Amino acid sequence: MLLKLFGLGLKKYVSDNFNIFDAVIVGVSLFELFADAESSGLSVLRAFRLVRVFKIIRSWVSLRKLLETVMNSMSAIGNLGVLTILFMFISALLAKQFFFETLVEDDGSDSRYSFSTTIQSLITIFIVITGENWNAIMIQVIDKHGSIPGPTLFFVAEMIIGNYMLLNLFLAILLKFISEGDEEEGKSDDDKGKTES
């Protein structure tokens, strides 16, 4: 840091935000070195050193374009997030209504999955939508209720709508914005070619 400060000069060094960030990180690190790190509470700031990795984005053009595309698609992804939360909430309320009894494991102990409260139901629906052990939860519900068609239909619908459709919508949104970015890049390359000739 000192070599860069000496080489660039103070005015040019301060003009770059990453240089200021590096100076803050070095200052906090020096303070931690001389202070008692456990009692100072500044040991949490060590994690900010990892942010320095983002300096690589400047020089890596394709990664920068990909991150810009993801940031441009955040409004559409936000809408999909609201739709996913709404779907999860409705599914959690339905599961709470139909499968409210305490589920049991194979050994007879209470299961960690439950639809007895709204919060527990939301957590369990999230686990089902992510595909993590959803079939074991379905089997526990079938064992508790003694009927196969109702729980099977509910859990398969959760997987199809929640996992496959919503996940594919997320990927479709990202691919749409990536293709739009590629088209804009192609147009700008064509415009450059026309102006040069």
3D architecture notes:
This protein has 197 residues and is an all-alpha fold. It has 2 domains: 2-59, no CATH class; 72-196, Helix Hairpins. Helix content is 75%, strand content 0%. It contains 10 helices and no strands. The protein has helices spanning 2-8, 10-14, 17-34, 37-40, 56-59, 61-72, 74-98, 118-130, 134-145, 149-196. Helix 7 (74-98) runs antiparallel to helix 10 (149-196). The longest helix is centred in the last third of the chain and has 48 residues, at 149-196. The chain is flat, with a radius of gyration of 26 Å. The two termini are 45 Å apart.
Question: Can you give keywords for this protein?
Answer:
mainly alpha; Helix Hairpins; about 200 residues
Q: Oligomeric form of this entry?
A: single chain
- The succession of helices and strands, N to C, reads HHHHHHHHHH
**CATH class value of the largest domain:** Mainly Alpha
- Secondary-structure content class: mainly alpha
CATH topology of the largest domain: Helix Hairpins
Rg estimate, integer Å: 26 Å
| Helical coverage, percent range | over 70%
Low-confidence stretches: none
Give the mean pLDDT. Answer: 82
* CATH architecture annotation of the largest domain: Orthogonal Bundle
Number of strands: 0
SS field, number of helical segments: 10
Largest sheet, described in full?
A: none
Strand proportion, as a percent range, falls in: under 5%
- As for the number of domains, it is 2
Taking the alpha carbons of the first and last residues, their distance comes to: 45 Å
**Could you say which overall geometry the principal axes of the C-alpha atoms support?**
flat
